[in-house]
Amino acid sequence: MIILGVDYYPEQWDRSMWEQDITRMEQLGVHAVRIGEFAWSRLEPKDGVFDFAWLDDAIALIAAHGMQVILGTPTNCPPMWLFESHPETLQCESDGTRTHPGIRGHRCMTSPVFRSYAARIIRELAKRYAGRPEVMGWQIDNELESNHCTCSACAKSFRSWLQQKYRTLEDLNHAWGTAAWSGEFSAWTQITPYITSRVNHTDWFNPAYMLDYERFAAWSLTDYVRFQCGLIREYDPHAVITTNSCFGINLPDFHQEFEPLDVAGYDNYPPVILPEDHEEFYSNAFALDFVRGFKQKNFWILEQLGGPMGCWRPISPAMEPGMLEGYAMQAVSHGADLVSFFRWRTAVSGAEMFCYGLLDHDSARNRRLEELEHFSHRLALIPNLSETSVQSQVAMLYSADQEFSFKTQSQSDGFAYWTQLRLFHEACMNLGVNIDIIPARESIDRYQVVIVPSFFVRDPDLAGRLEKFTREGGTVIVTTRSGVKDEHGNCLLGEPLPGPFRRLCGCFVSETDAIGKAHQRLQSEHGGSFSITSWCDLLSLEGAEPVAVYMDRFYAGVPAITVNAFGRGQAYYVGTVGEKAMYRSLLLEIFRSRRMKVMDFLPDGVESTVRSGIGKDFRFFFNNTLAAKTFTLHRQKVFLQPMEMKILTRTGQWI
User: Fewest 10 Å CB contacts: which of 2, 66, 68, 108?
Assistant: First the structure.
């Protein structure tokens, strides 16, 4: 059974409303209610004075209506009395100043004082609720980002992390190449988190130093997650624990963050306004597959788009018909086994009062509730859907080091690591081919095709693993800006790009052209030409054959994309950034050569994925556009309204 949930904040509403709200949830088929993640001031109104009576009553009422709760630890928003007594628990911004209390997420995760208070409230919650049947799971904190606090406690922790990694300042100076700009450290105390107010540009910092700082910030967050997990598991070793990831400013190493957790969680807010430009990315299919890769299994949506968005930006237009259900079904099609809508009631106070939930301020039944009801009924028609998962023949390797390094050193105007990932992913979706996004350290043996986009910072073992995979019959795709830096973030010396991937790809880069936002063209050997932008690697062949050549500038006719026979497999090198159609064309040729099943007849904007299990398959078709679409499948015309999802079973039944 796919679990249907809603996010509810009983502490924000008069008790007289609880019964009516929870009754309506039950009538809609809700199974789980997510509560508690912002309620610290109500749970501990004064230092050491606890009040759980209201939470007991809310959980009891939810349970009486046949539902369970996902209980949040309230550490994202400590009460004001804590900051008044201990102002050092406020985090410091990137300019070194303390965050103003009153917003959310304003605590320092590293502060020993904060952790002592956090441990106390978590233990009180765990003692009271751990192991109870009403609690199906726990959520740690809220929308955690990599820890970029610059306070003295975080500076001390950063230095300690570096001392454990490098042991001596001599080794650190060598690894960071601090001889540049006379940046050598003579004492550990000279090293601090980078504070932006001290220089004009963040990209003036030593890139190796910044890479290690980002790694530390990701580790610091993971340490915070482990800290909270340990407290809950003291009272319930079998608790199901997660947190709600988001893609904010300071991305963590998600695979590291979720290692101590039981299930991946995500806050899913697809766009209400779809762009008119065909080349823009807007589908949340990429994010959903990315999240599934955190644990490489089915996941939970802890916040699902429930209404027009506001608060952090001007209020968005109304959701289009079908959008609420379509986006929820899209999440399920990519492996979500729980979808919890944010939020049941739209807030009437606080910063999120115009971030609309399922119920508007008038509390009346509305179109979004009707779609939720229809979504609930459709899920009930497929009770065994949770016994299936997304199984893929294609993998794309993700590495947080690449994100961290590209973030601190721009390569050309418009070039982005995530763009490289999304170009391949979107092509797979439109060809109906499942794709996993996995950490680079994971085994790749079970896949047929492995895509390695812009592997900028070296992983010492990866090239050898890819060579073995290809030699044994696999297909590998490596792209531009790969093999540029060593593991410390310094450029590799004495070897042409793509560095460690040169032998596998059978080519090397003789010259580069960072063309930025300019547009040029390349010609495919299979026919057709495509627009390219951002970057051009001029490739010299060492056994590889050209797949496409440049058409413009002084390097017209020079290979841009190549393929190299390597053992029983093939390795492709893509030396530029193309339009979406280029990636679809390339992957279509590769998938056909491997006799993989593709759906090359799907219209633009229609995505298809499969969830499979023992004796069952469900093929999802999602029209992620605002125009009606049609295609032919098994000699049958299939019509999709805007934002509509249709599901085809193994027996040929449409749901």
Answer: 66
Contacts of 146 (CB under 8 A, 6+ apart): 214, 217, 218, 220, 221, 250, 251, 252, 253
Are residues 71 and 36 in contact, defined by beta-carbon separation less than 8 angstroms?
yes
User: 64: which residues sit within 8 A by CB, 6+ positions away?
Assistant: none
The span from the CA of 423 to the CA of 399, in Å, is 17
Tokens of 224: 């915070």
In this structure, which amino acid lies at residue 140?
I
* Whether pLDDT at 139 is above 90: yes
Class (C level, CATH) for 394-593 = alpha beta
SS (H, E, C) 397-440: EECHHHHHHHHHCCCCCCCCHHHHHHHHHHHHHHCCCCEEEEEC
Do the Cβ atoms of 638 and 362 come closer than 8 Å?
no
Q: Domain coordinates of the chain in residue numbers?
A: 3-147+216-386, 153-204, 394-593, 606-649
Is residue 202 very low, low, confident or very high in pLDDT (cuts 50, 70, 90)?
A: low
Close Cβ partners of 436 (under 8 Å, ≥ 6 residues apart):
289, 292, 293, 296, 390, 392, 394, 395, 396, 447
What pLDDT, in 10s, does the model give residues 498-537?
A: 999 999 999 999 999 999 999 999 999 988 999 999 999 9
> What average pLDDT does this structure show over 254-274?
98
Please write the tens of the pLDDT for every residue from 284-327: 999 999 999 999 999 999 999 999 999 878 999 999 999 999 99
Question: Closest by alpha carbon to 2, among 391, 372, 379?
Answer: 379
Q: Is 617:650 a contact under the CB 8 Å cutoff? A: yes
Measured in whole angstroms, the distance separating CA 77 from the mean position of its chain's CA atoms is 23
In angstroms, rounded to a whole number, what is the distance separating the alpha carbons of residues 514 and 519?
A: 11
Q: Which residues, in sequence order, are bridge partners of residue 359?
A: 345
> What digits encode the pLDDT tens for the residues 445-487?
999 999 999 999 999 999 999 999 999 999 999 999 999 999 9
Cross-strand pairs, 475 = 449, 570
Catalytic center residues: 143, 303
Residue 603 in tokens: 């219209």
Q: What are phi and psi of 197, to 5 degrees?
A: -70, -15
Please, are residues 507 and 542 in contact by the beta-carbon 8 Å criterion? Answer: yes
Of the candidates 386, 508, 498, which has an alpha carbon nearest to the alpha carbon of residue 453?
A: 498
| Among the listed residues 86, 106, 118, 645, the one whose alpha carbon sits nearest the alpha carbon of residue 379 | 645
Angle of helix 207-235 relative to helix 400-408, nearest 10 degrees, comes to 140
Contact 386, 337 (CB under 8 A): yes
By the 8 A CB rule, do 114 and 217 touch? no
Architecture field, domain 3-147+216-386: Alpha-Beta Barrel (3.20)
Residue 527 token pair = 């026919």
Residue type, 515: I
Single pTM value for the model: 0.97
Which tokens belong to 467?
């060579």
Helix (H) or strand (E) holding 571: strand 569-574
Instruction: Give the three-class secondary structure for 20.
Output: helix
Task: Note whether 3-147+216-386 and 394-593 share their fold.
Answer: no
Q: Whole-angstrom Cα distance, residue 372 to residue 365?
A: 11
Identify the CA nearest to 138 among candidates 243, 64, 234, 67.
243
Question: What pLDDT is recorded for position 197?
Answer: 64
Cα–Cα distance, 198 to 15 (Å, whole number): 51
How far apart, in whole angstroms, are the C-alpha atoms of residue 276 and residue 448?
35
Q: Residue 457 gets which letter from DSSP? A: B
**Residue labelled with tokens 């109304």:** 318
**Over residues 17-21, mean pLDDT:** 98
Burial class (CB in 10 A: 0-12, 13-18, 19+), 252: buried
